[in-house]
Amino acid sequence: MARINLLPWRDAERRRRQRNFIIAMGIAVAAVLLAGVGVRMQFESMVAAQQSRNHLLEQEISKLNLRIRKIEQLEETKADLLARMNVIQQLQESRPEVVHLFDELVASIPDGVFLTAITQHGNRVEVEGRAQSNARVSAFMRNINASAWLNDAELLVIENKDQTGTGFSHFRLSFKQQRLEPAEAPTAGSAGAPALG
After folding, report:
1. Crossing angle of helices 134-146/7-108, nearest 10°?
2. CA-CA distance, 193 to 143, in Å (whole number)?
3. Predicted confidence band at 188 (pLDDT cuts at 50, 70, 90)?
4. What is the DSSP letter of 193?
5. Number of Cβ atoms within 10 Å of the Cβ of 169
6. Once rounded to an integer, what is the mean pLDDT over residues 131-146?
């Protein structure tokens, strides 16, 4: 039987396998590197797209903030205009009240009483004056309470004529001016007439 030496064939087979293994390893490493580069590029593309969206959102938010500021300014202007309109309306409504106040005062002042000062705070009116006697001050207060436009007379201070040395009693009293609806207002003929009841 002939003897066959297989060592050279085995060496050649081992070298071929090693070469194939190195080639397979190289291909695998290249594939992993390519996949890594592809994934990185995909992530960078996604980050760039998200940054672009964020930038767009920031621009839109800044535009909306400008609009909100304009709306707030318009709201302030509207509130200011409404407040002015309310003041004008109140002044318009209170114009006849001044006339009624002076008409009722003239009708309520009895003989022997004269006024030296009138001040008004809201619907509360305060008057100062001189009277020949305390009874005339009382009559003045009764006339105020009987008026349709005035009520709630309250004596604040009175000094007898003996204390003043002028022959007149000095007094200060306050009362309320009430606002009547047109249906409640007395007619011109009954202005200043004492209320019954």
Report:
1. 120
2. 9
3. very low
4. P
5. 23
6. 89
| 114 contacts 128 by C-beta, under 8 angstroms | no
What's the first-to-final CA gap in the chain, in angstroms? 157
Question: Per residue in 104-127, pLDDT tens?
Answer: 888 889 988 989 999 988 788 999
Q: Compute the C-alpha angle 183/187/191, nearest 5°.
A: 120
Positive or negative: CA dihedral 21, 23, 25, 27: negative
Classify strands 169-177 and 124-131 as parallel, antiparallel or unpaired.
antiparallel
Tell me the C-alpha distance between 9 and 97, whole Å: 129
What are the CA-CA distances from residue 20 to residues 29, 31, 35, 73, 180 (Å)?
A: 14, 16, 22, 78, 112
Strand 150-159 with 124-131, pairing = unpaired
**Contacts by 114-121 with C-beta closer than 8 Å and gap 24+?**
120/177
How many CB atoms lie under 10 A from the CB of residue 132? 16
Q: What phi and psi, each to the nearest 5 degrees, are found at residue 124?
A: -95, 125
Contact assessment for residue 111 and residue 127, using Cβ atoms and an 8 Å cutoff: no
- The three-point CA angle 107-112-117 to 5° equals 70
> Which domains does the chain possess?
96-190 (3.30.1360.100)
